[in-house]
Specification:
Helix content is 34%, strand content 17%. It is of the alpha+beta class and 205 residues long. The protein has a five-stranded antiparallel beta sheet. The longest helix is centred in the first third of the chain and has 22 residues, at 2-23. Residues 89-97 have low confidence and may be disordered.
Length: 205
């Protein structure tokens, strides 16, 4: 009995020793943990939202707005068209182209200076009328003769301005003007160098 107990104890010791040898071998090197050296750094301060907004507003460029100047409106006055000539213009036009009805001849129109008295025109047309001979003996024809009276009374530039359609009638009117030359000299009050006359012959004698 003692022998069996001894044998069992020895067997347990052997088994335990084997387990210890297997779990921790003798030639296995020991490993140690790696040690790292760390330095602590303080974190930057975090700005609040209000501080950031203030910084952005300060960095924005300031835009200056100028108010536009309002100019006063100009009053536009409508000009009414002048339908009738002014008195001065009408008087000037009348001086340049006055007309006169000549008994026994027709109408006469003047160009040049102003004749202050109709006395001179009456003498001129009376002399031309005395030279006028109507070869057709009709009142249906009409011719206009234009001519210039020089200051000494000489007639120049006489020609048919508006023909009547009858050459015989036209030549008779032109001959009456040329035959009356020289006419009386221009009045001393007349300012121009000559007087242009447009004379109508209406077919009467």
């Amino acid at each position: 009995m003692k022998r069996e107990i001894l044998t069992s104890a020895v067997g347990h010791v052997i088994i335990l020793g084997s387990l210890l040898l297997l779990s921790s071998p003798l030639d296995k090197p020991r490993t140690y943990p790696t040690i790292h050296q760390v330095s602590l750094v303080s974190l930057p301060k975090i700005q609040t939202k209000s501080a950031q907004t203030k910084t952005i507003e300060e960095t924005k460029p300031k835009v200056m707005v100028q108010q536009e100047k309002v100019l006063p409106k100009k009053t536009i006055q409508k000009q009414t068209p002048q339908l009738e000539p002014q008195p001065q213009e009408a008087e000037k036009k009348e001086e340049e182209t006055p007309s006169q009805q000549i008994e026994g001849l027709g109408e006469a129109t003047f160009e040049g200076g102003k004749l202050e008295s109709p006395y001179y025109a009456g003498i001129v047309f009376a002399k031309i009328k005395s030279m006028w001979r109507n070869p057709v003996r009709t009142t249906t024809l009409q011719v206009t003769v234009v001519f210039r009276i020089q200051r000494d009374g000489q007639v120049t530039g006489a020609e048919i301005e508006v023909p009547s359609g009858n050459s015989l009638y036209d030549q008779a009117a032109l001959r009456a003007v040329l035959s009356a030359s020289p006419l009386p000299a221009l009045p001393t009050h007349y300012a121009g160098n000559d007087l242009t006359v447009h004379l109508n012959f209406v077919g009467v004698q």
